[in-house]
Design a protein that fits this description.
Helices cover about 15% and strands about 35% of the residues. It is α+β, with helices and mostly antiparallel strands and about 220 residues long. The protein folds into two domains: about 40 residues; about 160 residues, Distorted Sandwich (Glucose Permease (Domain IIA)). The strands form three sheets. The protein has an eight-stranded antiparallel sheet with strand order 9-5-6-7-11-3-2-13, with no helix packed on it. About 40% of the residues are buried.
């Protein structure tokens, strides 16, 4: 993430509320001469900070590429899908499951303009369940760019009940840039027009902003 001053942040700001208190307690224990307790809280703060790590990535160049919006494992690839965010449009869907150990920061799959953002309350089923796409709490973003319109949906899960989105409607965004975070992992769905071909299969491991998950047909570029 880049903060307002333009500096890169190696830890997502949403993680500060978790690991800073442990770091403060560790320091206080050290001042009070409780070295073992201080070490325990220091270790906990490091582990929590790791959950919110925010590594830099270098997006691949090329026309018609769609990058993974999340780190994790491809849960589903669906040839014929529908989305209430793009009604009446024949679509394909790729779902990426993020475990608690994966990087939680999300990145844009293509460049474009944010058309709409819609937060929908819902349930908190296991994000690996197919029904999670329809019934879980989620944040749906419609993005138009590179000659197409797509939908990116951040989905909450059993543990991940906090979705962060760092953009607003009308923002211009670049492929590979960070746009949000799902605290402690979960799932992210991306809906694409039928003119795209899958480049991944269920079980494949992907990295946000680097892995190519779909490619536009040459006849449509």
């Amino acid at each position: 993430m880049i903060n307002k001053a333009g500096h890169y942040e190696p830890i997502a700001r949403e993680g500060f509320v978790f690991f800073v208190p442990f770091l403060v307690i560790s320091f206080l224990c050290w001042l009070l001469d409780y070295p073992f307790t201080s070490f325990v809280f220091l270790l906990v703060s490091v582990v929590v900070a790791a959950f919110f790590r925010n590594p830099d990535r270098v997006p691949p160049l090329g026309a018609g590429l769609v990058l993974s919006p999340a780190d994790g494992t491809v849960a589903e690839v669906v040839e014929h899908a529908q989305s209430e965010n793009l009604p009446g449009v024949p679509l394909k869907r790729i779902s990426v499951f993020m475990s608690v150990l994966n990087v939680h920061v999300n990145r844009w799959p293509i460049s474009g303009i944010v058309q709409s953002i819609r937060h929908v309350p819902g349930r908190f089923l296991d994000a690996r369940e197919p029904a999670a796409s329809d019934v879980n709490e989620h944040n749906a973003i419609v993005l138009t760019g590179e000659g197409v319109t797509i939908a990116v949906v951040q989905i909450a899960g059993i543990l991940a009940r906090r979705i962060a989105c760092w953009v607003k409607e009308g923002d211009m965004v670049c492929r590979g840039d960070r746009f949000g975070l799902i605290r402690f992992g979960s799932r992210l769905d991306i809906y694409l027009p039928q003119e795209f071909d899958f480049q991944v299969y269920p079980g494949d491991r992907v990295r946000a902003g680097e892995s190519i998950i779909a490619r536009r047909n040459k006849s449509n570029r």
